[in-house]
Design brief:
Number of helices: 5
GO biological process, one term: enzyme-directed rRNA pseudouridine synthesis
Shape: globular
Strand content: 25-35%
Catalytic activity: uridine(65) in tRNA = pseudouridine(65) in tRNA; a uridine in RNA = a pseudouridine in RNA
CATH superfamily: Pseudouridine synthase
Enzyme class: isomerase
Function: Responsible for synthesis of pseudouridine from uracil-65 in transfer RNAs.
Order of helices and strands: EEEEHEEHEEEEHHEEH
Number of strands: 12
Helix content: 10-25%
Radius of gyration: 18 Å
Protein name: Pseudouridine synthase
Oligomer: single chain
Length: about 280
């Protein structure tokens, strides 16, 4: 069983500021245009999946106390019933976000995620020319800036991510010390689900994601925001595979890229490296 699309994603109007180090601030004020609806990718009696826009929180968070709108609230109001998030997706990350429509299904999906019985595929634009493929096996501690109290002696948790480089480009632009700047389009499949795992793992191999204010490089983030008109974290949850918790059917849910991300791929002539399923212009 595959996904079905309905309406286009909600439009985010952003007031993006450039940080002192040149990075785009991750806690920008983003407001959802009220006449738009969240794009529903799939729905049945037990589950519903949306294409979460970049800049939208899944639910209330102490990290973003100023935010007043959340995916869980917007979806509840849109379909007229309670929803239960089956997993998390960072505020600046776009893509597939799955909800259960009842507590029993939510419990089953939660257990499936804990047992790593799902397959998640992400798309990212990173700095530098990434190796053709590889596995990042690098344990991670709780993110020190998560503002969640943790034990200082807590051991690092296993974290594994598999990646594949889809395309590379060289721009004749001097951003740091070199006369040219290199970038790669990367597909990532996390085997585990630690907080900010993909962002931290790609930084660990010296290929930080463009637009990552915390783990990336400010000058590159600023160049993409101001010169390439793409002021967002270039990380997209493009596909989710799992067995339906009620029917047992094999599920594949795909999320198209937003216009900002897709236009960047076109600028670099990368659009054909991504499956047509993920194109907004299919």
């Amino acid at each position: 069983m595959t996904n079905s699309s309905s309406e286009r994603p909600s439009i985010l109007s952003s007031e993006t500021t450039i940080a002192k180090d040149g990075g785009t601030e991750e806690h920008n004020r983003n407001t959802l245009v009220e006449t738009e609806s969240l794009e529903i990718l799939y729905r049945d009696d037990s589950l519903i999946a949306i294409n979460k826009p970049s800049g939208l929180l899944v639910h209330r968070s102490p990290i973003d106390r100023h935010e007043t709108r959340f995916a869980i609230q917007l979806l509840r109001d849109q379909i007229g019933q309670r929803v239960y998030p089956a997993h998390r997706l960072d505020k600046p990350t776009s893509g597939v976000l799955l909800f259960a429509l009842d507590k029993d299904t939510a419990s089953k999906m939660g257990e499936a995620f804990r047992q790593h019985q799902l397959s998640k595929t992400y798309l990212a634009v990173v700095r530098g020319h990434c190796p053709d493929q590889g596995t990042i096996d690098h344990a991670l501690r709780e993110d020190p800036d998560s503002r969640i109290k943790r034990q200082e002696d807590a051991p690092a948790q296993d974290a594994i991510s598999h990646y594949r480089c889809l395309a590379k480009t060289v721009l004749d632009v001097e951003i740091e010390t070199y006369p040219q700047s290199r970038y790669s389009l990367v597909e990532v499949e996390p085997e585990t689900g630690r907080r900010h795992q993909i962002r931290r793992h790609l930084k660990h191999i010296s290929h930080p994601i463009i637009g990552d204010a915390k783990h990336g490089r400010g000058r590159h983030n600023r160049y993409f925001a101001t010169e390439l008109n793409c002021p967002r974290l270039l990380l997209h949850a493009q596909q989710l595979k799992f067995d339906h918790p009620i029917t047992g059917a094999s599920m594949i849910i795909n999320a198209p890229l937003d216009d900002c991300f897709y236009q960047l791929l076109k600028r670099f002539d990368w659009q054909d490296r991504v499956e047509k399923t993920f194109h907004p212009e299919k």
